[in-house]
Amino acid sequence: MQARPLRIGTRGSPLALAQAHEVRARLTAAHGLPEAAFEIRVYKTTGDQIQDRPLAEVGGKGLFTKEIEDGLIAGEIELAVHSMKDMQTELPPGLGIGAVLPREDVRDAFISLTHASLAALPEGAVVGTSSLRRQAQVCRIRPDLRVVGFRGNVQTRLRKLSEGVADATLLACAGLNRLGLADRITSPIATDEVLPAVAQGAIAVEIRIEDEATAGLVAPLNHEATALCVTAERALLARLEGSCRTPIAGLATLAADTLTLRAMVLSPDGMAAFDMTREGRPEHAAALGTTTADALLELGAAALLPKSD
Prior knowledge:
This protein has nine helices and 13 strands. By secondary structure, the chain is an alpha/beta fold.
């Protein structure tokens, strides 16, 4: 181990810090190293700084990773920890995924102080969310509800709910579980009702490709089944050229020797949707994502995607 601590880059939100601490704990356990062998460095990203408008208006993907990735490229840190769903499908040159941790609960959580489920909300009730994917699926299931913008970290959104800004909100079960806030979940939403975001529940460890020492250090943390599933999902998103401006959902599951990928492309109001499920071999995960995207495009999903310049 090098003389100075290995530096781990992360955002400063409570959830991001919890994820960085989880990576550090797994590294210390895997290598029998003291906690002091790793230093956590906090970066404030563009996504953290913009709180007055939807992220889709200012670029979407990459807004929560760019400054950390810049630090990684500059050699300020040896590895970066991200919620994988925040990462761009095409990483900056010289960077790669060193490990993907075991996936947490992939489901979205329904949270309300007064109602038991999405189905139990009265007509005209207000659902707060900053996610176009959640907005579209809520509108598709319950077109009688009103969806409003809801920015901020997990704690901020829970506070807004208590202040009556909305009757309910949807958050990732994974984040709530990692923060020790599982008791705030009113009811998990089945994935066949609301399909998760691509790579939801997965933590990625990003490194410099040429840094063989760090690659060897983080390799034991990689969870192969999770890595295969998110490979398929991210390949789907890459082929669709998905952005925060188009609601896209995808979830791959691995059972025995079969990888199953379900994907959806929706209009923001949920009135139009293309839904596809395909299967493939685990070793062909990326190809499964690409062919599923192609099948969606052939069905007509291209009409819902941003036009290329």
